[in-house]
Write a structure and sequence with these properties.
This protein has 406 residues and is of the alpha/beta class. It folds into two domains: 209 residues, Rossmann fold; 145 residues, Phosphofructokinase domain (Rossmann fold, 3-Layer(aba) Sandwich). The protein has 13 helices and 15 strands. Helix 1 runs antiparallel to helix 3. The longest helix is centred in the middle third of the chain and has 19 residues. Belongs to the phosphofructokinase type A (PFKA) family. PPi-dependent PFK group II subfamily. Clade 'B2' sub-subfamily.
C-alpha cells in the first residue's frame, strides 16, 4: 500500500495505545507513509495529522513506551458520523482528504460507536467503488463488542478492579463494628467489569459477598435483605455494583438526574451513593460508597500483559488483513481453551458488529442475581494474567509524551 491513516475514538483504555503500536509497527514496515489523525474522525476532517515516519530514528523505543502508556496517544472524540444519505458532503470531504494524501487504508481503533463510524465509511466506499480499505480495531473496557471473545482494554481494567477490591477487603477487615462498603464500577448495560470483582476472592478472602450486574433487574427490597443476610454472618460487607443497574421497569438506580451524550447513551451517576443512602436509611449503620470512575480504565501501572500483547497483535493483524485486501472488517479474538489459555485472531464483518451489544449471559449470573458463577470466573481469570515492566523516573512511571494534545 502507499499510505495509511489511523485514529482512535471513544473512551480511553490502558490498551488502546498497544493496538496503535501494533498498527504502526506493521504499517511502517509495509507502507510508504503512516499518518495518525488527532481526535478521531474530527482530525481526519480537519487534516490534523501526525506523520509517524518522522519517528523512524527511535521508532522501537517509541513503540515500546507507547504500548504501555494509558489513554489515547492520538486523542479521541465522540462524534457520530451521519449516514451518507443524510449528509453526503461530509463523506465527499473525507474521501477527498484520503485521495489527496494517497491513503489506501484507514484504521479506526475504538468501541461500538467507533465501529459504527468505520462501518459507514466502508459502506460508502463500496457504494462509490473506492479501493480504500476500512478496518476497525476493537477496544473497550466494557467488553460489549460482539463476535469477539473479549475486547482490548477489558483485561487490564478487570485486573485493576480485582486488585482494588482485594485491597479494600484488607482495609475494611480491620473494623469490628458492622459496616457496609459499596463499590460502583463502570458498565452501562453490560456487567463484565463488575463481574471481575469476583476475582478478588482467594483462599482467605470472600469479599465482595454481593455482586449486582445490569443484566438482572435490581430490587431494592431484595438488596436490603441480601445485605441483612450477610451482616448476620459478618460485620464487614463489601458489595460490587454496576453503574447501570436498573429496576424491573428499566429505571436506573441513581442519586442524580441522568443526561444523555450525542449517541443517546445515558450518562450515569450515583448508583453507589443511592445504595449507600438506602442502607443508612433502612439499616441505620455505617456505610460508604466508592466510585472507581475513570481510574479503572487508565491504571496502566497494573495493566495485564495478556491484554497488552493481544491488543498489539490485533493492531498488527488489522494491517495484515488490509494488505490482503480485506475491508469493512474488524479483527476478533477466538478463544480455543481456558487452560492452557489460547486465543487466535480472525476477522468479522463490521456490519455484523456495529450497533450491537454483548451482555453477560444470564447463566453466568446466580439465580438470585446477586453474584456470578464459577463459569464467569474461569472466563475472566486468563485475561488478567501477566505483569508489564515499566520504567520509573523520580518515582513515577515514564509514559509516552502527549504534549501534542495540550
Amino acid at each position: 500500500m502507499r499510505n495509511i491513516i489511523v485514529a482512535q475514538s471513544g473512551g480511553p483504555t490502558t490498551a488502546i495505545n498497544a493496538s496503535l503500536s501494533g498498527v504502526l509497527s506493521e504499517g511502517l514496515k509495509n507502507c510508504n507513509k503512516v499518518f495518525g489523525a488527532l481526535h478521531g474522525i474530527s482530525g481526519v476532517l480537519s487534516e490534523n495529522f501526525i506523520e509517524f515516519n518522522n519517528y523512524s530514528e527511535t521508532i522501537s523505543e517509541f513503540l515500546g513506551r507507547l504500548k504501555i502508556s494509558p489513554a489515547c496517544f492520538l486523542g479521541s472524540c465522540r462524534v457520530k458520523l451521519p449516514n451518507h444519505n443524510e449528509d453526503l458532503e461530509i463523506y465527499k470531504k473525507l474521501f477527498k482528504t484520503f485521495e489527496k494524501n494517497e491513503i489506501d487504508a484507514f484504521f479506526y481503533i475504538g468501541g461500538n460507536d467507533s465501529m459504527d463510524t468505520i462501518s459507514k465509511l466502508a459502506a460508502y466506499g463500496d457504494s462509490i467503488g473506492s479501493p480504500i480499505r476500512f478496518v476497525g480495531v476493537p477496544k473497550t473496557v466494557d467488553n460489549d463488542l460482539i463476535c469477539t471473545d473479549h475486547t482490548p482494554g477489558f483485561g487490564s481494567a478487570a485486573k485493576f478492579i480485582a486488585t482494588s477490591m482485594l485491597e479494600m477487603a484488607h482495609d475494611t477487615a480491620i473494623y469490628e463494628v458492622p459496616h457496609v462498603t459499596i463499590v460502583e464500577i463502570m458498565g452501562r448495560n453490560a456487567g463484565w467489569l463488575t463481574a471481575a470483582a469476583a476475582l478478588a476472592r482467594n483462599e482467605y478472602n470472600t469479599l465482595p459477598q454481593l455482586i449486582y450486574l445490569p443484566e438482572v433487574p435490581f430490587d431494592k427490597k431484595a438488596f436490603i435483605n441480601d445485605v441483612k443476610a450477610e451482616l448476620s454472618k459478618t460485620n464487614n460487607v463489601v458489595i460490587a455494583v454496576s453503574e447501570g443497574i436498573k429496576d424491573k421497569d428499566g429505571n436506573y438506580i441513581q442519586n442524580d438526574t441522568a443526561t444523555q451524550d450525542k449517541f443517546g447513551h445515558t450518562q450515569l451517576s450515583g448508583a453507589g451513593k443511592a445504595l449507600e443512602l438506602l442502607v443508612i436509611e433502612e439499616l441505620g449503620l455505617k456505610c460508604r460508597s466508592v466510585e472507581l470512575n475513570i481510574v479503572q480504565r487508565c491504571a496502566a501501572h497494573i495493566s495485564s500483559k495478556t491484554d497488552l500483547d493481544e491488543s498489539e497483535n490485533l493492531g498488527r493483524m488489522a494491517v495484515k488483513f488490509a494488505l490482503e485486501g480485506e475491508s469493512g472488517i474488524m479483527p476478533v479474538l477466538k478463544r480455543l481453551s481456558n487452560n492452557p489459555y489460547k486465543c487466535e485472531i480472525e476477522f468479522s464483518k463490521l456490519s455484523e458488529i456495529a450497533n450491537k451489544e454483548r451482555l453477560v449471559p444470564r447463566k453466568w449470573i446466580t439465580e438470585k442475581g446477586n453474584d456470578v458463577t464459577d463459569e464467569m470466573v474461569q472466563y475472566l481469570k486468563p485475561l488478567i494474567m501477566g505483569e508489564i515492566i515499566i520504567n520509573y523516573r523520580d518515582g513515577l512511571p515514564v509514559y509516552e509524551n502527549i504534549a501534542h494534545l495540550y
